[in-house]
Every structure is written in C-alpha cells, then in structure tokens.
Specification:
Layout lengths: L30 E2 L5 E5 L2 E4 L6 H11 L4 E6 L5 E5 L6 E5 L6 E3 L11 E2 L7 E5 L8 E6 L4 E4 L5 E8 L6 E7 L4 E8 L2 E12 L1 E7 L5 E9 L2 E8 L5 E3 L8 E6 L5 E6 L7 E6 L5 E3 L7 E7 L5 E8 L2 E8 L7 E3 L5 E7 L5 E8 L2 E9 L4 E4 L17 E11 L2 E10 L10 E7 L13 H8 L4 E5 L9 H4 L7 H16 L4 E11 L1 H12 L6 E5 L5 H7 L2 H11 L5 H10 L12 E6 L7 H13 L4 E6 L9 H19 L3
Parallel strand pairs: 34-35, 34-36, 36-37, 37-38, 38-39
Antiparallel strand pairs: 1-2, 2-3, 3-39, 4-5, 5-6, 6-7, 8-9, 9-10, 10-11, 12-13, 13-14, 14-15, 16-17, 17-18, 18-19, 20-21, 21-22, 22-23, 24-25, 25-26, 26-27, 28-29, 29-30, 30-31, 32-33, 33-35
Helix pairs in contact: 1-10, 4-5, 6-7
GO molecular function: aminopeptidase activity; serine-type endopeptidase activity
Protein name: Dipeptidyl aminopeptidase BIII
Keywords: Aminopeptidase, Hydrolase, Protease, Signal
Length: 662
C-alpha cells in the first residue's frame, strides 16, 4: 500500500496506568510555600493553587470525557479491519471482523499505541509504535498474530518514524533519530530479525521516507526545511546513492508514492500555485504532469491503489473534507465520492484495490471507521463510538465567518477565517462569555471535527467558542502561511486583537468575559494576547506554550530546532534575538494582571517544561494570579485519560472563576 497507508509512526503521548480525577485520586496533603503557593500532588500531577473539584462538576463532566472515537488503521487479509480506540486509559489497537461487529482489543499497554499497519503476506501481523511517558522516542514493534506476541525491531533509545514495507513484507525501511539530534538515519531490516538492521543513508535535517518501492530497491526520500520548502530524492538502497528528482525551488512537496512499475511518482506540490495539487513526475525525464484539477483549496492527502489504476485524494475546503477518485490514465477526470459533511482521515486502499478505508468525523459525532466499495459506491460504517450517554441532539454545530483585521489586500481589509460554536441560549439579554481557542503549529488549522470538550463548554458553561485561523495557518494558500514568519510574528497576535473588536460588535457575545485558550504555539498566542490585550481579557489558559522564542530554540529537542528557526527566526542572529527579547511574553509578563492557568507535561521534548516554569515564576513575582498543573508522566500535551480528566476539571473551575458560575 502507498502513501497514507504505509505506517506513519505518530509521535505518541504517554499514559498513566491508573485513571484518576483530582477529587478521587490519592492526594498528598497540600502545602503552602512562603510565597503563598499551595501545592498538592495527585498521582503523577503536581497542582499549584488549583482547587479540588466539587462532586457535581466531576459527575457531569465525566460523561463528556467518556466519549470516544475509532480511527481506521488498515485492512486485514480475512476482510476485517484494524482500528484504534480507547476502552481503558489510552488508545490501543483493536480488530473488527465485520461492520458494526465487536471490537476485539489486541494490544494492552500503559502507554498509548500509535498507528498500526498490516505487514504484507503475514496473515494479519502488524507493526505499531509507542513511546514512554510522552518522550516521543517511539519504538517500532511487530505484533505476530499467530503467537500474540509483540517484539521491538528498532534500537532502544532512538526515535523511529515513517515505517514502510516492501510488497512481499520481507523488508522494512524507516527513519531513525538518535539522542534528539538533527541527524537522520535511513535504515532497512527484516523485522523478524532486529540484528539485520542496516544503515542506508545518513543526513542532517528533516529527512524522512515518503515511500519504498515494491521491490525494496529504491526509497523516495524527502527533506522538510519549512512548511513551504521541501525536497525529494530517490535513494538507491544497495549503494546509498542519492539522486534529486525535484528542482531546487522554494516550493513544498508532501507525501509521494511510486507507481507500481517504479518509473514515476505521484506527489503533492504547490509549485507555481497558492495551493497544493497532485502531480506525476517521470523519474527518467523529470517531466511533470498535473493530475488534480485547478482549485482554490489544498489537496491534503492521496493514496494510490496497489494496482496503480486509481488515485484517491482528499481536499481541504475551508476546513471540511471532500474525497475524489481519479483514474491514472492520461486525461482522466476526478469523481467526488458522496460522504457526510465533515472531516476525513486515514484514507487507504485494500490490497485488492476494491475498497477504501477511512475515518469520518462530523461536528456532532466523533470519528468512526468506514469502508467504501468503489464498484458499487456503497459506504459501510464499521464502528459506532460512544458519546457518554449524552443526547446528540443537544450538540451544537459551528458557523463559519470571516472578520476584518488590521492590514489590507487589494485595498480592502484582510479577512481572517474562523468558526464559532454558539450556545442556543445566547441573546442580547443573555450574552455568552467567549473562549477563543487558538490552534498550535503555527502551521496548523482549526477544522470543525467533533470535540466533546467544546460541546461541554457550550452546553454546560454556556460559552461561545471561537476558532480563528489567524495568519500563518495552513489551508488558505502559501502566501497566507508565510504572513507571520520571523519579524512578522506579532501580526498574528494583532489578528486576535481584531477578533476582540469583532466580538465587541456581536449583540449576543459578552466582550468583557473573554478567555484565550491554546496549546504549543497556541500557548504562545495565549501569553502574547495577555501581554498585548490584558485589559480586554478575563483570563488565559496556556498549555505547553512558548514563553520566549530564544530560550525555546535553545532548549527544544535538536531534531526540531532548525525547522523552528525557519518559522520563528534564528536566535543566533543579533537582530532577531533583539526582536525575540522585545516581544517575549516572559519579558512583558508585568502586563499580565488577569488570571492565568499554565498546563505542562514534564517530559515535553518540543516545548520544554522550562518555558512554563519561567512564565509562572515571572507572573507570580509581579503579583499575578497563576494556577499551574504539571504531569510528571506526560509530554507535549496530556494523553492519559486520568490526566486529561483532571485537566478538564481544573479548566472548568478556572472558567467558572473568570466567567462566574452558571
């Protein structure tokens, strides 16, 4: 299988072996420091100034936190499928033998299990990845269906990603990162024999495997330099010879798949276009043939059928997904597949090139696994995930809107795309408080998938939830993505100021009760918003956020540093470092006088805990009010259900404090 179905080892997050809430877990006695900070330890959580959760809040919230989703992983040779879902604390791999059949759990770990891919010609054996405590040092495992045993085939202490099998299943190739450095190794092995590991290529930078030829002789190798700049090569496995196949232009390439005859590749690019499209490249001549039609949206995923006759690709149209099928014969036209309105993920072919598997999610329903039969056009649902006993009729769908910001395009105010979930009770006489949820990345995009957290905020807290896609977001063209780079960093913060202006014009929204909320880069945006618009905000929740770009770049894991320097600016340049000093929330923390809640994983390799520690200390030194939650067994965000439950409980208490109890 190609592109999307070759196993992409997700950087998984860790899980505690015991689910717990703040109110019910074993809690160490609270202690108060000389500075008045009250500290409690609850399991793996360290809580500073975070109050205990009342029983009534916990009991209602638990319904929302017990919704779950199922994601399609791969087809099994007997006609069943593999899915990922959570029945205990963390997602694990399950087998489903028939549509709407029982979900039979196959992996049982205290850590979450990353994506699974079936090994060809193995009777249904599969590979998966998992890390430890959110450290992102993912190990690859081969699960043998006959024995029920899983065995690691990767080297301990390394980070592994991009696993690809040959067509016969006898060889696997993947990317290895050692000691958190920027050096990447391309390795091949027989997964049955870990001692057979062999280094094929070593390079510094964002190298990764896009595809492996069916015969295992050639690897399609990619290098990501930034979100808008990447390269592709063909790597000869026998000799280690690297041959460039894309021109040295500042354009983006994504994915890539060999045609079955190995003479060409299908790949996504934005060369000469604002948006990504599908192109076929002849490897012998370099000739490039556009495959997907011209459109004003990105093609964001593609999978080539094993027989090489049909391409399945998805488009991202203002955050919503559409699926198309297109023959590989010259001049063929795409055919849109009729699917529910929502988002589509994990699209992949079965070995016979007759069915597609995928995960479908809507704003009012969590993700579930589906299959689509190409010949008949029949869509079949395989799972129906639980929604905690809640009534789906109460769930709110979002509305899309654009709002004007500070600069102009063609003489008119630039428009920022966003969507809003609004409580049905909101009116001019009952103005709803507002949560502005800012996505991370910054090369990311908020899309209207299902979120039980958002539904809780809307239905139980009575809050309107706005997701802005400020400049720097993907999905709206490559010019838009680059509008916040380097010295333009605070322009994206100004987009939040413009959103506050828009909120003030809405008769049913309370512009005096607005909280900014976000994680990772979104956490930086929370802190930057609070230093720039403190008097217009009621508070902020910063999750694994950056408080100073220079200290972040100095301390983040080495394999990410150069990629982040392209986006945020190189701190080694004196002018850029001076700019970082000027805009750093850490250096402007005296402006934060509204309540702040900081949430952090102790093992985070991306945004290290030091970023949270320093902003908490600085705001407190200035007399500000800060809640601080640290999970000692988590990384870049909370993965374990017990910790996530505790986070949601504490967030609820924080919202009630700044909004007033409903």
């Amino acid at each position: 299988m190609k592109t999307s179905r070759a196993l992409l080892m997700a950087l998984v997050l860790s899980v505690s072996p015991m689910a717990m809430s703040i109110a019910t877990a074993q809690t160490a006695p609270a202690s108060a420091s000389a500075s008045g900070v009250e500290t409690r330890t609850v399991g793996q959580l360290v809580l500073e100034n975070v109050p205990a959760t009342p029983e009534a809040i916990r009991e209602r919230l638990i319904q929302y936190t017990n919704t779950r989703a199922a994601t399609f992983q791969d087809f099994l040779p007997d006609g069943g499928i593999l899915i990922s879902t959570r029945f205990g604390d963390v997602p694990q791999i399950h087998e489903v033998k028939m549509p709407m059949g029982a979900r039979s759990q196959l992996t049982f770990y205290a850590e979450p299990v990353g994506g699974a891919g079936v090994r060809p010609n193995s009777g249904g054996s599969f590979v998966f990845g998992k890390d430890k405590g959110g450290d992102e040092f993912v190990q690859g495992y081969l699960f043998d269906r006959k024995s029920g045993l899983a065995k690691a085939f990767t080297e301990p202490g390394t980070q592994n990603s991009g696993i690809r099998f040959t067509k016969d299943g006898k060889m696997v190739a993947w990317t290895v990162t050692r000691n958190g450095t920027a050096v990447r190794d391309i390795v091949v092995a027989n997964p049955d024999d870990p001692t057979s590991r062999r280094l094929v290529y070593r390079g510094e930078g964002g190298f990764g495997i896009a595809d492996l030829s069916d015969d295992g002789k050639t690897i399609l190798l990619g290098q990501s330099i930034s979100v808008s700049y990447s390269k592709r090569w063909v790597l000869d496995v026998a000799t280690g010879t690297l041959t460039p196949i894309t021109p040295d232009l500042k354009v983006s390439y994504d994915g890539g798949a060999f045609a079955p005859d190995g003479k060409s590749i299908y790949i996504l690019t934005d060369e000469g276009s604002e948006f990504a499209y599908l192109v076929q490249i002849d490897l012998a001549t370099g000739n490039r043939t556009r495959v997907s039609p011209v459109m004003s949206w990105d093609v964001d995923g593609v999978d080539l059928s094993p027989d090489g006759k049909t391409l399945a690709y998805t488009t991202n149209e203002n955050g919503l997904s559409k699926l198309y099928l297109q023959a590989t014969t010259p001049g063929a036209k795409p055919r849109q597949v009729a699917l529910p309105v929502g988002t589509i993920g994990g699209v992949g072919w079965d070995p016979a090139s007759k069915r597609l598997g995928m995960t479908l999610s809507t704003a009012k329903a969590p993700g579930d696994a589906y299959t689509y039969e190409v010949a008949t056009g029949k869509l079949t649902r395989w799972t129906q995930s639980e929604i905690g006993g809640l009534n789906p009729d109460t769930f709110v769908e979002p509305s899309f809107f654009d709002y004007p910001t500070f600069d102009q395009v063609d003489g008119k105010p630039r428009q920022i795309p966003a969507f809003i979930y609004k409580p049905k009770s909101a009116s001019a006489d009952n103005k709803a408080p507002v949560i502005i949820n800012i996505h991370g990345g910054p090369e990311g995009q908020s899309r209207p998938g299902f979120s039980s957290t958002v539904q809780y905020w809307v239905n139980e807290l009575g809050a309107a939830v706005i997701f802005p896609n400020v400049r720097g977001s993907t999905g709206y063209g490559k010019t838009y993505v680059d509008l916040d780079n380097g010295f333009k960093r605070e322009d994206s913060v100004k987009d939040i100021g413009a959103l506050l202006d828009w909120i003030a014009t809405q008769p049913d929204l309370n512009d005096r009760k607005v909280v900014v909320y976000g994680g990772s880069y979104g956490g930086y945006m929370v802190l930057a918003s609070m230093t720039n618009f403190n008097d217009r905000l009621a508070g902020g929740i910063d999750i694994v956020g950056i408080s100073h770009f220079t200290t972040f770049l100095q301390n983040t894991n080495g394999y990410r540093r150069d990629l982040r320097r392209v986006e945020y600016g190189d701190e080694r340049d004196p002018a850029m470092r001076a700019f970082h000093e000027k805009i750093a929330p850490l250096n402007n923390a005296h402006k934060i006088t509204k309540p702040l809640f900081v949430i952090q994983g102790a093992n985070d390799p991306r945004v290290p805990k030091s970023e949270a520690d320093q902003i908490v200390a600085r705001v407190r030194a200035n007399g500000g009010q800060v809640w601080y939650m640290v999970a000692n067994d988590e990384g870049h965000g909370f993965a374990k259900k017990g910790n996530r439950d505790a986070q949601r409980e504490a967030e609820t208490l924080f919202f009630q404090q700044v909004f007033g109890s409903k």
